[in-house]
Design goal:
By secondary structure, this protein is α/β, with parallel strands linked by helices. It contains twelve helices and six strands. The protein folds into two domains: 70 residues, 434 Repressor (Amino-terminal Domain), CATH 1.10.260; 185 residues, Endonuclease, Chain A, CATH 3.30.870. Helices cover 51% and strands 12% of the residues. It has a six-stranded mixed β-sheet, with helices on both faces.
Length: 276
């Protein structure tokens, strides 16, 4: 078993499903390719589900139940995976983000997760619970994943992080004055790190702002690129350079149009002083 990834079934519903799928496959003595052939998919897809990079769809789980003769147990287990606050595609993105050599991101409306204080992140998830958008268990799932992502920035060598925040990120109050003040202080401290560049895209960019949705572009250690973007309902990880190159060009244009880091920190500090 070369490069066989260890699974943590306690990590998430997706990890538990992946562990169960691998156990059943091992019991039958099948390789991932052999199971994929029986289920009508590729061995690569089987690997992605086993390691939690892809969630099991209803069709996938039902097919696995048929192949293994497990009734509807896998299909029922897969419902817990799909009943998650994590958007489709995001777990796969995080698996690459924690290894990336460079991270470029754009966010609007809220401070991006990698830069959030624990109190700010808790306020965001608490608001979602109160609205009924997610459950308390799903809120805990989000916070646990965020902690994992933030911890990955402490690795050596540290990834280069380029962050462009729409001005709305620093103007929108979250969690009350105290939480917001600490969050703005966190942004200013982030900008001082030797491996980061922080810029604010001011409101007066108007139609010149390149993006209307959050965007992440990863440069991996082998210099390959991938991009992740999401809407309110789904996320998508893209590896095709035909689609990534225009996004990278637009990101560079946004960096050129945004305020410099010095001017951005001055905006953040002013917002901090204006916070009651």
């Amino acid at each position: 078993m070369v490069n066989r990834k260890d699974l943590d079934p306690e990590g998430s519903p997706g990890a538990r499903f992946g562990q169960r799928l691998r156990t059943l496959r091992d019991e039958h003595g099948w390789t991932q390719d052999e199971l994929g052939a029986r289920m009508g998919c590729t061995g690569t897809h089987i690997s992605a589900v086993e390691t939690g990079r892809r969630p099991p769809t209803h069709r996938f789980a039902a097919s696995a139940d048929r192949v293994f003769g497990t009734g509807d147990r896998l299909e029922r287990q897969s419902r817990a995976v799909r009943n998650t606050a994590i958007l489709e595609g995001f777990p796969e993105f995080v698996a690459h983000e924690v290894r990336a050599a460079e991270i470029r991101l754009f966010e609007l409306g809220i401070i991006p997760g990698l830069l959030q204080t624990p109190e700010y992140a808790a306020a965001i998830t608490t608001g979602a619970v109160r609205r009924g958008a997610i459950t308390e268990q799903q809120a805990e799932e989000r916070l646990a994943l965020l902690a994992k992502r933030q911890a990955s920035l402490e690795r050596t060598p540290a990834p280069l992080v380029y962050a462009v925040l729409d001005e709305s990120c620093i103007r929108r109050p979250v969690g009350g004055p105290g939480v917001m003040a600490e969050q703005l202080d966190r942004l200013a401290a982030f900008a001082e790190l030797p491996s980061t560049v922080l810029q604010v895209a001011p409101y007066d960019l108007g139609e010149r702002r390149a993006f209307d949705l959050p965007l992440y572009i990863l440069t991996m250690p082998d210099r390959s690129l991938m991009a992740y973007a999401e809407s309110a309902l789904q996320g998508r990880l893209e590896r095709d350079m035909r689609f990534i190159q225009p996004l990278l060009t637009a990101y560079h244009q946004l960096q050129a149009e945004a305020a410099s880091q010095a001017a951005s920190v001055a905006m953040i500090n002013k917002a901090r002083r204006d916070t009651p």
